[in-house]
């Protein structure tokens, strides 16, 4: 459980499932440090922009027509992709999507730089200028080129869903699911692993072939990536992803009020995002303020006593 503050985009990446993680760890233990999977959930603390999962295929096909720089890098796979989108089975569409993504991510560096230069020149006209929260394709291309000039990951704007979240919104990233954080602050919770397979928007090691081969090539509208919290009370909301390793409780306590966080069987990590007050555990009292973090032992009841409106996030494992 950690807080990330993204000003410069983080890499196009995915995390392997357990079977692949074990294989990668056995073959390359210096690069892949453990044999566990690493599903993740992110909860926005501010306005937040991310890429996650493949777009609906008709959107990608439309971008091939609108952006010749994109289509120039995938000219080999594009015809079959268009055919599969128009009349193919789901299996054929996934196969065609994989071929398109592979051709893009494995394009020669000099070809990528040439097409990025042409693309940026075209979307950098004065009429294209927007705000830092602009999630139009033109704005994202400019932002990512400023962060990683000439990088192939810039073209992932045309292949991956763009998520714009408000504070309290969340999304889940399962194994073999491509994603990248673009801008904003978030709480990130994950399984115990350091395994990351990267392919763009990074100065770190890239493992493009592994990434291309590992993805599921699920595709669809960005709404299916978002998670809705389950409101347990007027104070507590539970973000519960479809895995056993963790969940997160958001506690919002009004100024001058108290609220209990009931005991569970597993350990917890509590982090204060906003406000001030006191954390009461038995007869012990500990201060609360932005950035304060506490480890909560199993079978422990905690009470929030808020001096000012208090927001805390508690990652837990039962």
Walk me through this protein's architecture.
27% of the residues lie in helices and 31% in strands. It is built from 8 helices and 19 strands. It has helices at residues 18-27, 57-66, 68-73, 78-87, 90-105, 109-123, 137-147, 208-214; strands at residues 2-6, 12-14, 40-44, 48-54, 160-165, 170-173, 179-190, 197-200, 226-227, 230-231, 236-239, 247-253, 258-261, 268-274, 277-281, 284-288, 293-296, 302-306, 310-316. Strands 1, 3, 4, 5, 6, 7 and 9 form a 7-stranded antiparallel β-sheet that branches. A hairpin with a 4-residue loop joins strand 10 (230-231) and strand 11. The protein is elongated, with a radius of gyration of 22 Å.
Strand count, sense and barrel status of the largest sheet are:
7 strands, antiparallel
Average of the residue pLDDT scores? 94
Question: In DSSP terms, counting alpha (H) and pi (I) runs of 4 or more, how many helices?
Answer: 8
Order of helices and strands: EEHEEHHHHHHEEEEHEEEEEEEEEEE
Q: What class do helices, strands and sheet pairing give? A: alpha+beta
Strand content: 25-35%
Give the helix level as a range of percent.
25-40%
Tell me the overall shape.
elongated
Our Rg estimate from Cα atoms comes to: 22 Å
Ranges where pLDDT stays below 50 over 5 or more residues in a row are none
How far apart are the termini? 15 Å
Oligomer: single chain
Number of strands: 19
């Amino acid at each position: 459980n950690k807080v990330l503050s993204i000003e410069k985009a983080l890499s196009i990446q995915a995390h392997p499932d357990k079977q692949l993680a074990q294989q990668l760890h056995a073959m390359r233990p210096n690069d892949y440090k453990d044999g566990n999977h690493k599903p993740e959930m992110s909860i926005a603390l501010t306005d937040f922009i991310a890429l996650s999962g493949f777009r609906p295929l008709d959107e990608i096909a439309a971008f091939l027509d609108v952006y010749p720089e994109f289509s120039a890098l995938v000219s080999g796979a594009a015809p079959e992709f268009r055919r599969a989108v128009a009349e193919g089975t789901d299996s054929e569409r996934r196969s065609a999507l994989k071929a398109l993504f592979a051709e893009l991510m494995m394009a020669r560096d000099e070809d990528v730089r040439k097409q990025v230069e042409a693309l940026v020149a075209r979307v950098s006209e004065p009429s294209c200028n927007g705000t830092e929260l602009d999630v139009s394709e033109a704005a994202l291309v400019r932002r990512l080129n400023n962060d990683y000039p000439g990088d192939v990951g810039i073209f992932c704007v045309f292949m991956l869903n763009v998520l714009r979240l408000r504070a309290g919104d969340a999304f889940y990233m399962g194994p073999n699911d491509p994603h990248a954080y673009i801008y904003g602050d978030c709480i990130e919770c994950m399984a115990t692993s350091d395994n990351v397979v990267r392919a763009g928007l990074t100065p770190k090691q890239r493992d493009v072939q592994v990434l291309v081969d590992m993805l599921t090539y699920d595709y669809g509208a960005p709404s299916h990536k978002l998670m809705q919290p389950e409101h347990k009370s007027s104070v507590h909301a539970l973000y519960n992803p479809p895995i056993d390793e963790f969940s997160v409780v958001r506690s919002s306590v009004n100024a001058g009020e108290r609220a209990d966080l009931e005991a569970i069987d597993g350990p917890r990590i509590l982090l204060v995002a906003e406000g001030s007050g006191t954390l009461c555990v038995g007869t012990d009292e500990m201060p609360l303020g932005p950035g304060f973090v506490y480890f909560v032992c199993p079978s422990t009841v905690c009470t929030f006593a808020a001096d000012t409106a208090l927001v805390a996030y508690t990652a837990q494992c039962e």
